[in-house]
Specification:
By secondary structure, the chain is α/β, with parallel strands linked by helices. It has helices spanning 101-113, 132-135, 160-168, 181-186, 188-196, 209-215, 237-243, 261-273, 291-297, 312-321, 359-364, 382-396, and strands spanning 157-158, 174-179, 205-206, 225-229, 251-256, 278-282, 306-309, 325-329, 335-336, 346-351, 367-370.
């Protein structure tokens, strides 16, 4: 078999040999294109042309390029160190980032937007009028209780009428009385009556109006008077029945789920004006005796007991057993109030404005009546309805 003539490509550097691929004339018989061995002494050196194969990866030197080839790396060279005699030590470990930096910057920006104390948003200084104590050089101090528990803004009585009635009530234990100059003048009569009755009362404490404002709920109309006192003793339904035993014209008011302190206070005021013995409420659905209730009652808290019971239906049964004629007011009543006999002991029962009296309460009553109302508005506020009913009872007698 004749040998094939050599290919014209065989003369080019790096070209393939004959068809047999034996690699004649090449060391080791391996193809130069696959010879990837590097110089162990200079691994970073530029590669030259391989024997019998293609040129290496290094670019040929240009004319005028005087840069010498890169030499081998020194053994004491640190990886990543800069050339040119840079002897800086390697960078240390990166410091740990604080988690609260972003929060600190946010707080700083928030503080920058917030006006300083004593300044408005425009940066101008705010000035408040000086109190009498500050004009005299005294340091202002918050008001504290002289005796008993700490002051509670919801349990302080305020207003001239509520404070006067409590001051003159021998059953009341008074702890502190905070008054302004105008409030002190308004209580002169109460001071005199309490002194004549030899009641044990503390010395009034003269303060500024702003100090009383801080003691009471926002918007309280205190008229320059705030009173700290102990609550009155609880009155039971049995006490009311015993007190009515000798009074054939005894009158009481029963409230079914009336929770607004203004309404309860107004009913107490009307009950005191028309001579009622007590106002009876269910304990779970009635407000406590706060300053708001006492202010609305205008002193009636000291005259008419607010009796709390657990079961209102049972309390009505107790009143009926004591010869009380129980009359409930509702729009469903068959007769008007003035058509009912109210000459003996009477208990007027009124419900809340929304739901009225409950079914069980209505079933316990001797009779359900209604007021002769008409026009576009057929119902009245519970405190107004109580005042009208109490007036009718008083008029009939």
């Amino acid at each position: 078999m004749r040998n094939r003539p050599p290919s014209p490509k065989s003369g080019r550097p790096g070209g393939k040999g004959g068809a047999s691929g034996s690699g004649a004339g090449r060391p080791g018989g391996r193809s130069p294109s696959r010879d990837t061995r590097r110089d162990d002494d200079n691994p970073r050196a530029a590669r030259g042309p391989k024997a019998g194969g293609k040129p290496g990866f290094a670019k040929p030197a240009r004319d005028g390029d005087a840069r010498p080839p890169r030499g081998p790396r020194r053994e004491d060279d640190t990886r990543g160190a800069r050339t040119g005699g840079d002897s800086r030590p390697p960078r240390g470990p990166r410091p740990e980032r604080r988690d609260d930096r972003r929060d600190d910057r946010r707080d700083d920006r928030r503080d920058d937007r917030r006006p300083a104390a004593g300044q408005d948003r425009g940066g101008a200084e705010r000035r408040r009028p000086m109190s009498a104590a500050e004009e005299l050089g005294f340091e202002p101090t918050p008001l504290r209780a002289t005796t008993g528990p700490a002051l509670n803004k919801h349990n302080l009585l305020y207003g001239v009428h509520a404070a006067s009635a409590a001051w003159m009530n021998p059953r009341r234990k008074i702890r502190d009385l905070f008054v302004t100059e105008s409030g002190l003048e308004a209580l002169e009569e109460a001071f005199q009556k309490a002194s004549d009755a030899e009641l044990d009362r503390p010395e009034p404490r003269l303060v500024e109006k702003e100090e009383i404002d801080k003691l009471l709920p926002p918007g309280a109309v205190h008229q320059g008077v705030a009173l700290s006192c102990a609550p009155l003793a609880e009155v039971e339904i049995e006490d009311v029945v015993d007190a009515a035993a000798d009074d054939p014209l005894a009158l009481v008011v029963v409230l079914d789920q009336v929770t607004d302190p203004h309404n309860v206070g107004a009913v107490l005021r009307s009950a005191a004006a028309f001579g009622a013995k007590a106002v009876i409420v269910q304990d779970r659905h009635a407000p406590p005796v706060t300053g708001t209730l006492a202010k609305t009652a205008s002193g009636a808290v000291e005259a008419v007991p607010l009796v709390r019971v657990t079961n209102l239906a049972r309390a009505i049964d107790q009143l009926k057993a004591a010869s009380f004629w129980t009359v409930a007011l509702a729009e469903s009543g068959a007769r008007h109030l003035h058509e009912v006999d109210l000459s003996g002991r009477t208990a007027l029962i009124l419900g809340s404005e929304g739901d009225g009296i409950r079914r069980l309460t209505g079933e316990r009553a001797d009779e359900i009546v209604r007021l002769p109302t008409g026009g576009p508005v057929g119902s009245l506020n519970v405190s107004t309805a109580a005042a009208v009913a109490l007036y009718e009872v008083a008029r009939r007698r």
